Amino acid sequence: MTQEIQLPRKLANQLLHLAQISPEHEICGLISGKNGLAQRCYPVLNVSEHPKQQFLLDAQQQISAMSKMRENGEDLFAIYHSHPTAPAQPSKADINLATYPDALSLIISLNTKGVLDMHCFKIINDSVTELPLVMRDGT
Fold it and tell me: Where in the sequence is the domain holding 23, given as residue range(s)?
């Protein structure tokens, strides 16, 4: 049976909002976790040369976010990014650049008519597995 990934509704809404306010460029960042549950969002600047088609986490902001997670007793839960004009499926670049096998990959698509689409993947050594994503109420 495939593991179900639970995301607090408040956190999901925050991710969707960040994607909506940047419809031209991919947004990206980190999500912390504690005891296997997603906790909070750490937006990181996308410094890719082609931000409309791919993302690259700003190294300094990524280090800072990881440091804040440790201070809060949290771990890296997921790396998120948006696809402004593509489906919420990992691109070749997303798969090739996945360097944290323990972290989930959350992709938010704006390529839908009025409905935001978010999917969760585990990417390990070019192998992609989609995991069911469930919104839960509460923190």
Answer: 5-136
pTM: 0.94
Contact (Cβ atoms closer than 8 angstroms) between residue 113 and residue 87: no
- Encode pLDDT of 47-66 as tens digits: 999 999 999 999 999 999 99
Classify strands 133-136 and 5-8 as parallel, antiparallel or unpaired.
Answer: parallel
Please report, as a single letter, which amino acid is at residue 17.
H
Question: Are 75 and 33 spatial neighbours (Cβ–Cβ below 8 Å)?
Answer: yes
Find out whether 105 and 130 touch, Cβ atoms under 8 Å. Answer: no
CATH of the domain at 66: 3.40.140.10
Question: How many independent structural domains does the chain possess?
Answer: 1
Identify the CA nearest to 98 among candidates 61, 54, 132, 65: 54
Residue type, 106: L
Give the Cα separation of 95 and 32 in Å (integer).
Answer: 21
- Retrieve residue 41's tokens: 């969002």
